[in-house]
Amino acid sequence: MPTQGDTSDVASLDMILLGTGNPLLDIAAVVDEEFLERYDVKLNNAILAEEKHLPMYKELADVPGVQFIAGGATQNAIRVAQWMLQVPGATSYMGCIGKDEFGQEMIRACSADGVNVHYLEDEEKPTGTCAVLVSGGERSLIANLSAANCYKSKHLLEPENWFVAEKAKFYYIAGFFLTVSPETVIILAKHAHEKKKTFMMNLAAPFICEFFTKPLVEALFYCDYIFGNETEAATFARVQGWETEDLGEIALKMSQLPLAEGKKERVVVITHGGEPTVVAQAGKVTHHPVKPIAKSDIVDTNGAGDSFVGGFLSQLVQGKGIDDCIKGANYAAHVVIQHSSCTYPTKPNFVD
User: Fold this and answer.
1) Given 113, 224, 300, 306, the catalytic residue
2) Cut 0.70: pTM above it
3) Is 236 a residue whose pLDDT tops 80?
4) Is 100 known to be catalytic?
5) In its keyword annotation, does this UniProt entry include Cell membrane (predicted)?
6) 241 burial type by CB count under 10 A (0-12 exposed, 13-18 middle, 19+ buried)
7) How far apart are CA 288 and CA 279, in angstroms?
8) Quick one: the chain helix, strand, coil %, rounded to 5?
């Protein structure tokens, strides 16, 4: 990470990375099997809330030891990148929150992390929430988007916000945002293409690959980097009609999807839990080992994928190569899964 004494490096990182997404206040708690069954929730999944899930949020808020954390996939990745960089204002984030107490808490929390936040504040809808159900070290996410579902591209185009977008050189968006404002995704994707900047996305969840295929593929056309896990990659491959379950083959095929004119190559990064991370780049597939961790040391896998991306981005924006980016990614994920939800110590102890 850059040192505070190196003013040239610090200045060059100012607002270098922008994320847009669905800001959610995570309501995280440990629950039992009966709770999961009552609300028909499967572990290791991410879904949007249905009517049957709505009573769960109030019940969860009353669980002993519950935590309230600024969350949402993209916001998590941006917060972790900011934490790894340790340069205030190196990262920026946009999304929609409500004009309520939870929204103000989100502003305070993310700003305290050093992120330059530019939220659209909706007058009517409350701030979005995400139930983070933790059981046996595994987790499931049920998002009630509410205000997060109200983001409009006109907010991005307001002068004070577009200034932030223009200043950034790297853009990261999780696929969840395609359910809210695909227009914003394409505006940033085309801007990055036109200005020869770096545009990146995450497959986010199987339902994005399956039910939002058209906007996803349209956005991937502009992607320099695609992130995902083994389940998302397998779902994407099935939807595309690729007759393979081999992650290396899938990553390679994804890297070879049509790419906007003028872009040199696409890098695809697929995580697989404790198994080696698969990377497809320049027609080749490489496998990168994950640092082993005892199951007893795992507190919560919520945010593991987001923190992996955040660690990766923190190195990428500094001009590091793929090996160093993966090291940063593995370090961040290794730390975060030893904490509850997507949280971490005050400062990283990462040696690149």
Assistant:
1) 306
2) yes
3) yes
4) no
5) no
6) exposed
7) 8
8) 45, 25, 35
